[in-house]
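Support request, please re-run this one:
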Amino acid sequence: MLLATAAQAQVSDGVVKIGVLTDLSGTYSDLAGNGTLIATKMAIDDFMAAEKPTFKVEMVSADHQNKGDISSNKAREWIERDKVDVITELVTSSTALAVQKIGKEKNRIVIINGAGSTAITNEACNDVTVHYTYDTFAVANGTAKAVTKAGGKKWFFLTADYAFGHALEKDASDVVKSSGGEVVGSVRHPFPTSDFSSFLLKAQSSGAQIIGLANAGGDTINSIKQAAEFGITGKQQLAGLLMFITDIHSLGLKTTQGMYLTEGFYWDLNDETRAWSKRFFAQHKRMPTMVQAGQYSSIMHYLKAVKAINSDDTAKVMAQMKKMPINDFFAKNGTIREDGRMVHDMYLMQVKTPAESKTPWDYYKVKAVIPAAEAFQPLSASRCPLIKK
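Re-run finished. Output below.
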């Protein structure tokens, strides 16, 4: 009886509370946003039905408006007032980096899916954070390498002026140079922005073969649209260093055909991805991005770890999450390293032509599978203070 009572008491209040902080109204709302709330709810419902835990699971959510101060204030409020156990999603690197600090201060787990900066598992890394879906190293490693090796040797970068854009430009520049190319210049634009004319003119006059778009979401969509309007795409090639299937859907295959991009997930990879994605589509009326699919996978992994040890204790759950492999529709043999980076295979994709696309959302050709060991920054190059070298 004593053992049973102790076991029941280990999940505080008998409730595991998940806080989803995301962009519900801004430039990243399409690739993350409400779709991540749907994915989280799907994970909770599937977990409760399959695992039948003794504890309840609840979700709270908020719009962080892509602002670090709003994110950190909401995270603090959730933890102190609402007893939230894990804060998750956090598209936009500035919000992720801000909430990482709160997580460490308050000893709560932070699971990041939408943000990309490699600083999350390098300089800013801590023992309560998991960086799950992708990062700038992985997407640059796939796309920049493929484009450079295909003959795009001279690059100019159009970069969102905040942590994510800076990290993506640096990681892509390193790949371009190591692959035999050169960077002839770059320009940074405000985040977010709608008028790219002056920045595109600088790229146009640079003499570069490739204009690398070190931005995402609405910024990427607007820069591609305006590049086409200015006639740039007929003379120079655009490389979307972080693009999502929702971007392709918004722009259309006529505009994006032939572009390379690197993804962590595609709905049409296999029977498992198709089955889950069709369930998601039924609720969201759009196929999932890798952020939305990664959100489901990470929440399911977290909840399984809590159930396995019958505790929501931060240190114990983190240890269990790092111990358990990830095998689901999102990742096979995925693992969470000491620096908090979840490593898994990534995919180099090429956008189909309109003639090649046979059904709605049939947008990609898989050009290469990038094994987990190659996709992400090796631990030997880590700047995370947790890593002993």
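The first helix runs from residue 2 to 9. The chain has 14 helices and 14 strands.
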